[in-house]
Each structure stands twice: as structure tokens, then as C-alpha cells.
Design brief:
Ubiquitin-like (UB roll); 5 helices; DNA polymerase, domain 1; alpha+beta; 2 domains
């Protein structure tokens, strides 16, 4: 039996009429056209469908719609945009952490939830937080660098301003050039391709 369920998605009140046990992922993608969360395994094991539910990273493929009733859901689209990426998204761009881009939603959303509750994590804490997110392309080193960079960006003054972060403050001798500003931080366009020589 269908039920009308109210929730907040990316700060906006929405009502959805569907079966109460419909996975939240299906509602986000099919009914609300929010395609940041991806269908990966359908079992809550890979992390591609991660959203932030009341401040906690959650696998939307195993959260029933009824489980989100009255709660706040944030998807990748709720963080930033291509023209004004959130500092976590900007860090993933700067570190060229995407290859195919399929896992980026889960990595970014999990990193955002981690940094919200622990703004200065150690590398081991980042590894533990991301341990349930799968990346088949093997960009784990770049992803870890991106999360650590995001922590630095978020701790700097003006991190939430609309201006792009100052790359000079974060420069390393081995730093790669940043991805063009018009690249999609969400990986929706297939993600940023890494140079062939890497």
C-alpha cells in the first residue's frame, strides 16, 4: 500500500507517495531526479549510494522511504555545484581523485560526514571512515589526499565562501595542477580522467 511521506531533501521539504519499503535511493533518483547517489550493489556494501541522513552517512539503497520520514537528507547535489563546489568537492578536484567517478558520490558524502563530526582527522581515521566504500579503479591514495586536503580547506578562514580556495596555501612540490574549474566535482560526467602516464 502506498503512503505519502514527508522529508527534507537538500533543505527543501518534499512529500513523496510510494510504497513505504521503497529504497530511498529509488525515490532520490527516480522521483526527485537527484542522480548523485548511484546504484552499486543494492546491499549497502559498496557506498556508491551514500547520502547524509540527519548528519550521518547512510546507504540509501537499504534505507526504506519510511525510514527517512521527517528526517533531513543531503545528497551530493546539496553540497555544491560545478560553479561553486563545496570544499570537499574542491579537494577531490584538486587531487584528481576521480577516475571513472562512480564511487565519488560515496567517497565525498562519507568524507563530508566524517569532517562534520571530526574536522581534523588522522589519516587512519580517514581510512577507517572510508573502509566501507569501494573504488574499483584504485584511486585510494588520491582519495585519502583529497580528504586530508578538504580538512585543511575547511579549517581555513573563508572555507565556505563562494570564492575558490587558495591553491597557494596548499601547494606541495609534488602537487598536480588542479582540474579545470568547469569539471564536474560530482563525477556525473564520467569523472576526471587521470593522465595516461600516471
Amino acid at each position: 500500500m502506498e503512503k505519502t511521506i514527508a522529508l527534507r531533501v537538500n533543505g527543501r521539504a518534499v512529500s513523496v507517495t510510494a510504497m513505504a519499503d521503497t529504497p530511498l535511493l529509488y525515490i532520490l533518483r527516480n522521483d526527485l531526479a537527484l542522480n548523485g547517489p548511484k546504484y552499486g550493489c543494492g546491499l549497502g556494501e559498496c557506498g556508491a549510494c551514500t547520502v547524509i541522513l540527519d548528519g550521518v552517512a547512510a546507504r540509501s539503497c537499504v534505507v526504506p522511504l519510511a525510514g527517512a520520514e521527517g528526517r533531513a537528507v543531503v545528497t551530493l547535489e546539496g553540497l555544491g555545484s560545478s560553479s561553486a563546489p563545496h570544499p570537499v568537492q574542491q579537494a577531490f578536484i584538486d587531487e584528481q581523485a576521480a577516475q571513472c567517478g562512480y564511487c565519488m558520490n560515496g567517497m565525498i558524502m562519507t568524507a563530508k560526514a566524517l569532517l562534520d563530526r571530526n574536522p581534523a582527522p588522522t589519516i587512519d581515521q580517514v581510512r577507517r571512515a572510508l573502509s566501507g566504500n569501494l573504488c574499483r579503479c584504485g584511486t585510494h591514495v588520491e582519495i585519502l589526499r583529497a580528504v586530508m586536503r578538504a580538512a585543511r580547506l575547511l579549517s581555513s578562514p573563508g572555507a565556505h565562501d563562494d570564492d575558490q580556495p587558495d591553491a597557494g596555501a596548499d601547494a606541495r612540490p609534488d602537487a598536480r595542477p588542479a582540474v579545470p574549474a568547469d569539471a564536474d566535482p560530482c563525477g556525473a560526467d564520467g569523472g576526471v580522467r587521470r593522465p595516461a602516464d600516471r
